[in-house]
Amino acid sequence: MVDAITDGITAGPDQLQGLPAEAVLAVERDQQAPMADAYREFLSLIGGGAGRFMQGEAVYHPHVLGLGTAALELLEENESPFLFEPTDRVFFMHQGYQFEFMRGTGPDPEVWSYSEGEHANVPVHSYASFTDWLRATAEAAIPAWKHHVETVREEINADGSITLHW
C-alpha cells in the first residue's frame, strides 16, 4: 500500500513519516487491546503522516492517541447499546462522529465502522482485515487526489497555509 500511495500526488517518498519505536509503543499503550502486527507495520511506515493520504483524519500520531476514549464518549453521547470488547482498538476517527476499529487478536484483524445516527447507532462489520481497509482507503484516495491536482491549483502562503484556486 505504501508504494501505491507514493505516486508523487497522494504522497511523495519524502512525505512518508514512519514512527520511531517509542512512539509506536505510546500508541500501543494508549488502549488496552493488543496491537496487531499489520497496524504496527502501518505505524512504523507512515504512522506520522503520508502527504495527502488521509490528510485531516485522526489516524496519524499524535492524533490517534485518545481515540479509544473519544469513541467511547461518542457511543455514550448517542446512547448506543454497543460495548467494546477487550480486543477492540480504535485507530481512526473522522470529524468526531465516525470511527473505525479493529476487532480480534490476529495479525491482521477485521475492521468495524461506526457512524453517528446510522445502523441503529451500533458499529457494523466493514472489512475482513485492517489491510483490506487500508487498501480500500488508498484505492479511493489515489484517484481523488489525482483529480484534485488536475482541477485545483494550490498556493502555499508565507505562513505555511494553503490557498486553493478552483
Describe what this molecule looks like in 3D.
By secondary structure, the protein is of the alpha+beta class. The protein has a single domain (16-140), classed as 3-Layer(aba) Sandwich (SMI1/KNR4-like). The chain is built from 5 helices and 8 strands, in the order αβααβαββββαββ. The strands form 3 sheets. It has a 4-stranded antiparallel β-sheet with strand order 3-4-5-6. A hairpin with a 3-residue loop joins strand 3 (88-94) and strand 4 (98-103). It is globular. The protein starts with a helix and ends with a strand.
Assign the CATH topology.
Answer: SMI1/KNR4-like
- In N-to-C order, the SSE pattern is HEHHEHEEEEHEE
> What characterizes the major β-sheet?
4 strands, antiparallel
Tally of distinct domains = 1
CATH C-level name = Alpha Beta
Content of β-strand: 15-25%
The average pLDDT value, as a whole number, equals 93
Total helical segments = 5
Side-by-side strand order of the widest sheet: 3-4-5-6
